[in-house]
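[scheduler] slot 2 assigned
[scheduler] job type: sequence-to-structure, two independent chains
[scheduler] chain ordering preserved from manifest
[runner] begin chain α
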Amino acid sequence: MKPDRTLATALAEGVLVLDGGLSNQLEAQGCDLSDALWSARLLADGPEQIEAAHAAYARAGAQVLITSSYQATYEGFARRGTGRAEAARLLARSVELARAAGERVEREIWVAASVGPYGAMLADGSEYRGRYGLSVGELERFHRPRIEVLAEAGPDVLALETVPDADEAEGLLRAAEGCGVPVWLSYTVEGERTRAGQPLADAFGLAAGNDQVVAVGVNCCDPDDAGPAAEIAAAVTGKPVVVYPNSGELWDAAARGWHGGATFDPARTDRWRAAGARLVGGCCRVGPEAIAELAANLRS
């Protein structure tokens, strides 16, 4: 059901469970995600599948559902022949589908509208590198139209997520100014640096004095990197921390596939909580079963 409290109030009162990877759940439901738009294609071609995937995570115990708009951009839709008005409608639909799935359970469910990085639009793996050759101002102009339409759709928070580069984080935060919706800022990292190589202390510092930012942290990273990064985020900003790493497998952008072994362990939530984590879940390749185990671990 729709929450009675703001997300900031809920975070001040305890830990919330995030969902897991949307794409892996959609694939488990039999969806083909080989298109460059990835899961965002289903906003037009299979919205019922997206709602079902959200519902699976809600049943598993997730309290925050992240929308399917990560790879949904005006530019990406345009390559499929979709005009701006229709693209805006599909972006808003991503929020509506998550909200509808949340209405299926009798507890508060918050909706986080996903704002993925510029590299996600390119669909070439560059969201794990950053350094696109664009200025902060250019990145701000790229992100602002999508942020505006997502904010108008009424999510509880904007998830500025999988950000590989402090410059892009600055552009995203500028683009979100005045949109009327709180945000969280989540980097994808390698060790104690962003994927672009900046020290995390500097990267998190961008959000330290920004009252619109209700949480900072990491996602779509190796689970081994999540704990140390969470400690840095909390120390630098004093804000609640968001942590949702991937399974530990590695993404091969050229082959468009995952390889290696999974290392995601829901029992790690104890360390993440100790470091200041108040939003905890999983990203790519972390499914409803793992989220259910994570939720049970947090309850205990």
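[runner] end chain α
[runner] begin chain β
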Amino acid sequence: MEFFTSYDGTTLAFRTLGDGPPLLCLPGGPGRAAEYLGDLGGLSAHRTLILPDTRGTGASAIPADPATYRVDRLVADVEALRRHLGLDRVDLLGHSAGGSLAMLYAAAHPDRLNSLTLVTPSFAAVGLPSDIGVDEVIAARAAEPWHAEAVAAHRHMTTANSFAEAAPYRLAFEPLMYGRWDDAARAHAAADPAQRALPVSEHYYQGYTPDTGELRRRLGALHRPTLLLAGEVDVWPTAGAAVDAASLFTEVTLAVQPGAGHYPWLDDPQAFTAVLEGFLSAVG
């Protein structure tokens, strides 16, 4: 584990994994330590993964001001890490809520971006829905033995007023987040509570009121290669939401991984790494 000091004096942690050109990977959750990303399905064989823990999560320190957990304010932490690493421009990956952060960074620092990879990202930061067609996606899995319990939990999750209120239903809901509810998926889901910092989760979007028109304009003017990867059976975002959001970008490659959920590197590591490495290699 390595450490650096961010703009406000908060000590933040990151680790590096693998070999090859650097790829800065922003975790989601929101508020989940980067440990859950693993080696991104073996992508570390091709890239040096830089895996920061968001402030207040994992090995990163708790800041004096919890308002700095808000997604737009976290952009300054990403920029501080880029400076610490001495990178003129970065290949940036964001997963889930980390995708929202990656889009905000791209809009704020386009000159510091080499490429943008969004893996099953949230579109909350740009004011677009992430659940287009979700009822059809869920209904298509009705034959699964866990389906009825997961659907009931999903209703509670989507109507909860806070992450803490939703927490009791999360485990029953989790099968909907994976393409296969196997032992690897169960272990990955079971690790979530210990890796998640609820204060970060609660503050991530709290008070966030973006100028979505300006953000969309900036992203549309972003002439950087962008990969938007969705999972075919993901519920957040759905593949339909990703298709809709692809219009935000000028130089976009849209990929929908067959049979994949919210963590596509677990569902089919080879397919996942082939798409990402193919895209990153073409970027150069």
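[runner] end chain β
[qc] chain β: The mean pLDDT is 96.
[scheduler] slot 2 released
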